[in-house]
Design goal:
The chain has 17 helices and eleven strands. It is of the alpha/beta class. The protein has a domain of about 250 residues: Rossmann fold (3-Layer(aba) Sandwich). Strands 5-2-1-6-7-11-10 form a seven-stranded mixed sheet, with helices on both faces. Bound molecules: S-adenosylmethionine.
Amino acid sequence: MLSSIDEQIISQITSLGELDKEYWSFSRRSKRTHCHGFIKYPAMMVPEMQGELIDIFLKHKPSIKSVFDPFVGSGTTMGEAIVRGLDFQGIDINPLAILACETKSDVFYISSLEEKISELNARLGNDKRDTVDVVFPKINKWFIPRVQLELSKIRRAIMVEPSKWARRFFWVALSDTVRGACNSRTSTYKLHIKPLDELEKLGCCFELFKNKIKANFELKKQQMSLLDSKGLLLRSALSSDIDLSISNIQSPPKKSESCRHDMLITSPPYGDNPTTVPYGQFSYLPLMWIDTADLRNKVPAKLLENASAIDRASLGGGLKGAIKSVEQLRGMSQSFSSSIDSLLKFDNNAPKRLSSFINDLNDSLDGMLYRIKSDGYLVWTLGNRHMSGQKIPLNEILRELLEARGCQFVVEIDRAIPHKRMASRNSSSQTMNEEQVLIMRKR
Ligand SMILES: C[S@@+](CC[C@H](N)C(=O)[O-])C[C@H]1O[C@@H](n2cnc3c(N)ncnc32)[C@H](O)[C@@H]1O
């Protein structure tokens, strides 16, 4: 049954959408300000929308003090939670995502950062060594010799910096530099070699890196003054408590994590990484140049073994045993059952891929709910992908899996995606131009 707070939330959300049909698309209202512009990451959420949703929940339930994002990615929810003084826990299997979140939540004096940037630039100018400092399989396929030398100089200049927070800030800028200077196309998140004539036009890494550092410096300055103006900095630390971990969300939570958070706000993957958004492949090349020992979180070596290791460890990444779970899932979700039936008509591995992904998502739900207090709200931004030409209703499947656990459906927002945030060459997500925001409540 709906509570009176649910009714107030529904009324505010639906009336905003009724007054302006485009309201939830955020078409002219989406900008990547402060920490949200630090790094390119696939399928980032719209910060303004997540911020506005948090405000709606805070208005009707002011007791909300902490937020959990089990698929934190580059930390859009986290950035918005921090500027509202909320405590935050974020989990992601991808070390690059957690590095981005660590830098976004790092607090330091802007004047110190300014000094460290000029020292870094001086080191870059003085380095006359001609050696390549990293070794990994297929390095020559993904980087031309000049780029390898330039990236090595940048890496050396960062490694000499004594403060970890500054090194983390520089590694994040290096991530976009590596993506911009590698031989992989930018039109796809998958590693896919550029045509030869484009390789000849690859820009200078120093220029890419220095421009990124300059831009990120301004963004960090913006974030720090925003936090300061809201009284959210205590000496040189955030007033919120931030807990980030590189972990598979299917792993059982610790006892100490029980019922810690007032709400969950997240966007899970739309399907298995290899056929939707390969977050791991996107992150692999930057991770080969970054010294991952600088993350506050220890990075499991197996995640860096090759370009597909992160994707294989992600939801739906393994197809073994996928079919075994179908009958149990059918019993919990009618929408899953109909989707599988429609896919079984085709002679391909789509049924296996769907059941593996939904099985992994289902397996992770108990651990997520364990971390949320009773009556805590759950806000899911979801995309419905296509498989074998059939639309897979992830919003309905997830709703049914949560209802099977006693959760209350509150409301759903259907929103148009204003500009394509998907890589255009990714055929399975190309057809996605709308999203759903599913809002439920744990009982
Ligand atoms: C849609 S993205 C999140 C994007 C994020 N909301 C943002 O704005 O940047 C989904 C995330 O789920 C993560 N993921 C996939 N499988 C996971 C798993 N088993 N455990 C934890 N994280 C996982 C991916 O690495 C990816 O960062």
